[in-house]
Design a protein that fits this description.
The chain is an alpha/beta fold. It has a single domain, classed as P-loop containing nucleotide triphosphate hydrolases (Rossmann fold), CATH 3.40.50.300. It is 51% helix and 17% strand. The protein has nine helices and eight strands. The strands form two sheets. A five-stranded parallel β-sheet has the order 2-6-1-7-8, sandwiched between helices. Strands 3-4-5 form a three-stranded antiparallel β-sheet, with helices on one face. It binds 2'-deoxycytidine-5'-monophosphate. 2'-deoxycytidine-5'-monophosphate (DC) binds next to helix 2 and helix 4.
Length: 223
């Protein structure tokens, strides 16, 4: 890369945001910021402390936490107050509670501050629900990934089966439809394509081809 660019990737659940962001980060040597991991980390701590339903304490927690992400060998390692919690933040319990935590505007404000600080020096790719609309509205490139509901459900279903979780495809699809609706209709940082984002539908395209196409777009802006 010739200049310090900021790339932001947004899109609905199962659209392949993390896959694209990780691949591009590795190919271009960019810092990868998995914003979802931050919301998950706060949720984990709130559960640990037994304050998950106590809004003010959760806000206090978000204001005082020392949060660190390290992207290594394709994995985002997450540390809070110097303790690693990477393996703890993807449990069903966290999946269940994270939307409640990420709805709190004061929590979002704190995490957005950390995300923007990481972006100050550029050379970064951020992925997550509001990265193109709120966190980095001036990003050099904004990508809005989509895929059909059936394809997204198929991907999520495969992930569940690989983890040994037995769930039907119909159930996964219904969950995704519900989450799309909640995410698009929520008041705080709803899921929405930024006007100047490039929309990329990856329903019928391999990951390798998707990455090549996105790399071309990045080269175009890196002139
Ligand atoms: O991408 P993920 O599944 O790890 O995200 C976890 C949750 O956090 C998900 O419910 C959406 C929410 N989130 C958010 O509200 N804003 C972000 N920038 C990233 C994630």
């Amino acid at each position: 890369m010739s200049k310090n660019i900021v790339i932001a990737i947004d899109g609905p659940a199962g659209s392949g945001k993390s896959t694209a962001a990780k691949n591009l980060a590795e190919r271009l040597g960019l810092i990868y910021v998995d914003t979802g991991a931050m919301y998950r980390a706060i949720t984990y701590l709130a559960i640990q402390k037994g304050i998950v339903n106590d809004r003010n304490s959760v806000i206090e927690l978000a204001r005082n936490v020392k949060l660190k992400l390290k992207f290594e060998n394709g994995i985002t390692r997450v540390f809070v107050n110097n303790k690693e919690i990477t393996d703890k933040i993807r449990s069903a319990e966290i999946n269940d509670k994270v939307s409640d935590i990420s709805k709190i505007p004061e929590v979002r404000a704190e995490l957005v501050k950390i995300q923007r600080k990481l972006g100050e020096d550029g050379n970064l790719i951020a992925e997550g629900r509001d990265t193109t609309t709120v966190v980095f509205p001036d990003a050099d490139l904004k990508i809005y990934l989509t895929a059909s509901i059936d394809e997204r459900a198929r991907r999520r279903h495969k992930e569940f089966l690989e983890k040994g979780i037995n769930i039907s495809l119909d159930e996964v699809k219904a969950n995704l439809e519900k989450r799309d609706k909640l995410d698009s209709e929520r008041d705080v940082s709803p899921l929405k394509k930024a006007d100047d984002a490039i929309e990329f539908d990856n329903t019928n395209i391999s990951i390798a081809d998707e990455i090549e196409t996105l790399l071309k777009k990045i080269k175009e802006i890196d002139k």
